[in-house]
Amino acid sequence: LVEEFEQENVDGIYSTDADGFKRWVVAKETDVLVEPEWDGKENGRSPESVISTLIVHMNRFAKSYSKAAILESDFSTQEEFIYLITLRSFGEMTKMELIRRNIHEKPAGM
């Protein structure tokens, strides 16, 4: 596929980097670049805004789901469960390593 790209791109229509190669593949396969649609696009909402909103929604779903999952267990918070999974998966580690691995802020006084 790379050889075909190089042979067909002798006029330099596409840049010779990965982005140019991707554009060539898309153009070759579809002959049309179709931009996706999303809510609010017509009002100037950016794709980054949509992605951020979806990440927030995923986080809310994960919290809701984890609360339901640990409802009748000995765990009182989602973090307790996540810490245990981390220790089980990666083995023994210091408290600071555990905090870093779970992307939590270092508590004051540590």
Commentary on this structure:
The chain is 57% helix and 0% strand. The protein is mainly alpha-helical and 110 residues long. It is built from 5 helices and no strands.
Order of helices and strands: HHHHH
Strand tally: 0
**What share of residues are in beta strands?**
under 5%
Which structural class do the helices and strands define?
mainly alpha
What's the overall geometry?
A: elongated
Stretches with pLDDT under 50, minimum 5 residues: none
Q: Largest sheet, described in full?
A: none
Question: What is the helix fraction of residues, given as a range?
Answer: 55-70%
Distance between the termini: 54 Å
**How many separate helices?**
5
Q: Output the radius of gyration.
A: 24 Å
* Average pLDDT: 88
Short description:
With 110 residues, this protein is an all-alpha fold. Helices cover 57% and strands 0% of the residues.
